[in-house]
Amino acid sequence: MKPVLAKEKDILADMWAYSMAAAHLNLEHTIVDHHMVSTWGGAGEGFPFIDTWNSMHCRAPQGDASPTQKVPTFIHLASNFKAPRSKQWMFHKGHVPADILHCGVPLLKESPDNLWNVIPKAQTPTKRSAWILCNTVSRVNQVRIARRAPHSASSSLLSRTRPSHFSSLLFPPLTTSLPSAS
After folding, report:
1. Of 64, 54, 47, which is closest to residue 126 (Cα–Cα)?
2. CB-based burial label for 165 (10 Å; 0-12, 13-18, 19+)
3. pLDDT value of residue 155
4. What is the extent of the structural domain holding 15?
5. 64 and 5 both lie in a single domain
6. Distance (Å, rounded) from C-alpha 112 to C-alpha 47?
7. Considering the entire predicted model, what is its pTM?
8. Percent of the chain as helix, strand, coil, to the nearest 5
9. What's the distance, CA 74 to chain centroid?
10. Where does 30-123 have alpha helices with state H?
């Protein structure tokens, strides 16, 4: 990585460094892009798995998958993910604070639990963005709660919807639900 960083410092430097190392070592690769979701307009991703879902709760999205339901394995946070069409809720990895794992930093503010369910199925790009948004924020908060438990005396006092210090820049005030789809 250091030789690449000496010549290139942009956001793709890590990918360039991996490519150079893989070529140097003659590593063979198998492309399995159907296991990942990234940019809602991209082809060859795992979005067909998401498109078959009938419902999802944003506060516990993995609980809505049946045992036979196919679920993308990886979420590549390559874009801003906004939903519904009003873009009322948004997640972008660049807005996550560097100290997110510190005990004093509040949890990320979650979207309403019914966000995914109220978006009509015909709004496929928005529905896909909502799936990524709900899964990302919920899982980041789950990791933070699990990590804090052994390290924070006050971890039991955490609220799942307590806004982060930067959330006012990203999210509107918390509402309990959105109107249902028509």
Report:
1. 47
2. exposed
3. 41
4. 1-30
5. no
6. 22
7. 0.70
8. 40, 5, 55
9. 10
10. 47-51, 115-118
* Cβ atoms of 79 and 38 closer than 8 Å: yes
Q: Residue 128: which of 141, 116, 111 has the closest Cα?
A: 116
Contact 134/115 with Cβ under 8 angstroms? yes
**C-alpha of 22 from chain center:** 28
Position 177 in a domain: no
Domain assignment present for 114: yes
Alpha carbon distance, N-terminus to C-terminus of the chain = 52
d(CA 24, CA 142): 39
- C-alpha–C-alpha distance, residues 137 and 115, integer Å: 13
178 within domain boundaries: no
Structural domains in the chain (count): 2
Token pair listed for 104: 């004093």
Do residues 102 and 130 both lie within one domain? yes
Q: Low-confidence residues of the chain, pLDDT below 70?
A: 1, 40-42, 149-182
What is the greatest pairwise CA distance in the chain?
A: 56
100 lies in the same domain as 24: no
Distance of alpha carbon 52 from alpha carbon 87, whole angstroms: 23
13 and 39 together in one domain: no
